[in-house]
Amino acid sequence: MNQMNANPLAAYRETRVKTASPAQLVVMLYDEAVKQSDLALGFMLNDLKKNPQNIEKVNKALGKVQDIVTELMAGLDFDAGGEIAEDLFALYVWFGRQILEANLEKDANKVQAVRNMMDDLRGAWTEAAAKVQGMAGSGAAAGVNIAG
């Protein structure tokens, strides 16, 4: 049995990532960051003192959020993005700091704040990706590079 047929879901995800536009990849990163934030919040709000095994689950989910924030930072194009890229970088630095502090303090409010802002950014990127895709489909925006 070949590797592709062994796990069709993994194959689908890999194909989806390989064929996504840069803007769609950013949306995927935000999607996962929001999902991991929600997981962490669920575990944090489920009384960590009564369920100490959830501490590791919180750590793992917030670690993934931090990894995503790092990936978003690394993907910024300061030449093409200019001031927007600089603003996003500063915001991502703040996200990273808030997630680190939230994890150390097990502070659900800090996770919620970052999660809400990431969800707002995800919505903006979804709109941008749709516009770019629509423009590319009409031939008007071939080669458009979204900085972020």
Describe this structure in words.
It contains 6 helices and no strands. The chain is mainly α and about 150 residues long. It has a single domain, classed as Four Helix Bundle (Hemerythrin (Met), subunit A) (Up-down Bundle). Residues about 140-145 have low confidence and may be disordered.
Q: How much helicity do the residues have?
A: over 70%
Number of strands: 0
**CATH fold-level name:** Four Helix Bundle (Hemerythrin (Met), subunit A)
Round the Cα radius of gyration to an integer and report it: 18 Å
3D shape: globular
Order of helices and strands: HHHHHH
Summed up, the domain count is 1
Low-confidence stretches: 140-146
The profile of the biggest β sheet is: none
Oligomerization state? single chain
Structural class by secondary-structure content: mainly alpha
CATH homologous superfamily heading: Flagellar protein FliS
What is the straight-line distance between the termini? 40 Å
Strand content: under 5%
By CATH reckoning, the class would read: Mainly Alpha
Mean pLDDT: 85
- Any guess at the CATH architecture? Up-down Bundle
The number of helical segments is: 6
Tell me the layout of helices and strands.
Elements: H1 3-6, H2 8-18, H3 22-44, H4 54-74, H5 78-105, H6 108-137
Helix pairs in contact: 3-4, 3-6, 4-5, 5-6
